[in-house]
Amino acid sequence: xxxxxxxxxxxxxxxxxxxxxxxxxxxxxxxxxxxxxxxxxxxxxxxxxxxxxxxxxxxxxxxxxxxxxxxxxxxxxxxxxxxxxxxxxxxxxxxxxxxxxxxxxxxxxxxxxxxxxxxxxxxxxxxxxxxxxxxxxxxxxxxxxxxxxxxxxxxxxxxxxxxxxxxxxxxxxxxxxxxxxxxxxxxxxxxxxxxxxxxxxxxxxxxxxxxxxxxxxxxxxxxxxxxxxxxxxxxxxxxxxxxxxxxxxxxxxxxxxxxxxxxxxxxxxxxxxxxxxxxxxxxxxxxxxxxx
Length: 292
Known about the structure:
This protein is mainly beta and 292 residues long. Helices cover 6% and strands 57% of the residues. The termini are far apart.
């Protein structure tokens, strides 16, 4: 009996040693690091920074209990242990319509295992490098690419080798400044394991702060959705002006390194031409909008 208890303790200790805590920052109108890849046993920890929000499950794997937890000044953290492999979709109950949603992809660790995954600059091309502990039972590696960090497309399949060292050089340059990569191990039984998501900065990309404003024209009450780039963590300041240059209102959005999503609640405005001045660090841009 003592041997069984000791074995169970050792197994739990071993699992806990390799489990990770993956933090998702919660700010006004977005989850920073909204899409993550994790292993069974990892803990997802939502950490409140701004606003009144929730972490609310939308869909979970079979056998997992749904959750709906407040995240505000009185509830600054919520942790959820991933005990079942599968995809977990979640949202902020108050701001999901504004795009405040996220995805957790949980996979069981395979015997091959990832180590030293990185993305380096190779003459302005992304060079994805990774190692594995073993090549046993590996059918192939799927290299996947994304320009928003959420939706990935396979760009290459690479066979296993005895050296357990791999690389992929991406020759297809996109117009996006930030490109995201992940690698998936698929074994001979169809089981799979996802790597962490890694971001690559394309040095030759056009330097642009605001990459998308929608809708434009805007209907009342005005809700302006935007995507913006950030070279490091900071705060994006948005200022709204009338066409004549009269200041109307201002908002601030937290920024993580990479591509960010945000929302500017413009409220009820008189129809006409306006412009927005966006400032982040030393970068400033001016964009015209129309209110119907």
